């Protein structure tokens, strides 16, 4: 397929030479909308990248990027070139993915995204073991929110992601890794602190600290707390954090409560663990999966990641039974 695409492009521009490197520069500039950042990603100097793009534009007889804008933007003709360049590069890389997949050894570069409410807790569990067991895999891990991850998977700018599912995205494959129950984390001055176990209906009388917009955990917590709640313990203070650790400290230092997924409770001190309360069964729970596109070819690395992650999970999670859980959907 890539040969036919290159042939068609050559027919369009006659005998002029268009290189794969030039197309990679086009895609990088479109991604960053900034020449310096694109050059850094491509490991070339900015003058080199600019010169090659100018050369390509001269050969095609069009302007790909409007440099008068800030950030720079593709022209109408440029958008068509960018779209086709992405197809060509994808098909070119597919050749190497096929070869890697046909070999017995698990190897290659792999870009993995993890949502912020999972990253600090799940990455330390599996990263070292995976690196030791698969030294020929170059694993690059980054944090993104769920909406960003879906877009990155669609653009094939990442290979897979670990996040909360189901996503209801037909173009993506979801492999469930584990189910993670929620726990209540409450300050001692709350009535909830006096209970040994809590029910979802108990949360209506107390103040809740939340993650800010864009975090899937926020959506799930609000679904557990199906009522109108004050967003903080103080009428004149409202704070929504992007970090679970901040929410923990707010509960400890001020008042109120929050909901924490199981892995976020493991590093609590002995004193802070006294502030944890379980839910009556079935406990509200989130489903965590490894997600990737349907045209994906690096399944050997996916398999290796799945096996490694499952092997390092705490036994409390691996021993959960269906009757103990109540999955909280995102939608």
Automatic annotation (TrEMBL):
<comment type="similarity">
    <text>Belongs to the LysR transcriptional regulatory family.</text>
</comment>
<dbReference type="Pfam" id="PF00126">
    <property type="entry name" value="HTH_1"/>
</dbReference>
<dbReference type="GO" id="GO:0003677">
    <property type="term" value="F:DNA binding"/>
</dbReference>
<dbReference type="InterPro" id="IPR000847">
    <property type="entry name" value="LysR_HTH_N"/>
</dbReference>
<dbReference type="InterPro" id="IPR005119">
    <property type="entry name" value="LysR_subst-bd"/>
</dbReference>
<keyword id="KW-0805">Transcription regulation</keyword>
<keyword id="KW-0010">Activator</keyword>
<feature type="domain" description="HTH lysR-type">
    <location>
        <begin position="18"/>
        <end position="75"/>
    </location>
</feature>
<dbReference type="GO" id="GO:0032993">
    <property type="term" value="C:protein-DNA complex"/>
</dbReference>
<dbReference type="InterPro" id="IPR036388">
    <property type="entry name" value="WH-like_DNA-bd_sf"/>
</dbReference>
<protein>
    <submittedName>
        <fullName>Redox-sensitive transcriptional activator</fullName>
    </submittedName>
</protein>
<keyword id="KW-0804">Transcription</keyword>
<dbReference type="InterPro" id="IPR036390">
    <property type="entry name" value="WH_DNA-bd_sf"/>
</dbReference>
<keyword id="KW-0238">DNA-binding</keyword>
<dbReference type="GO" id="GO:0003700">
    <property type="term" value="F:DNA-binding transcription factor activity"/>
</dbReference>
<dbReference type="Pfam" id="PF03466">
    <property type="entry name" value="LysR_substrate"/>
</dbReference>
